Amino acid sequence: MTREEIKMIQKSWLRVIDKMDEAGLLFYRRLFDVEPKVRPLFKIDIEKQGRKLMDVLNWIVLNLQDIDAALDAARELARRHVKYGVKAEHYPVVGHTLIWTLRKMIGSEWTKQLEQLWTQAYEALAQVMIEEHHHHHH
Fold this sequence. Notes:
The protein has 138 residues and is an all-alpha fold. Helices cover 78% and strands 0% of the residues.
């Protein structure tokens, strides 16, 4: 990912930062609509969960240019999720849900290019998280 592309992702994220709580809730509501099977994996209330997710995402997005730091955060997240019982096959639906949430939050500023960039970024992180998953399961 080029510096320019990273800047675009970070700039779009600024639209979400002010409304992180709302974004977190939106994300989980949507996820449970699309994939009701994962609901029982989330024991704590989804407002807290949503805030946690947004905090981690915030950290990763703000550190995207330092890819090692971003990937470490993704690995750490994966380790926690293995404990929760999240499976590798949950990652694609989470990706779709994340993109859907960002599109909703960012509204008219959302572009096809942003969608591609976010998808690319998510897939790179998910890849690392899935590897971490397999690592801890075998």
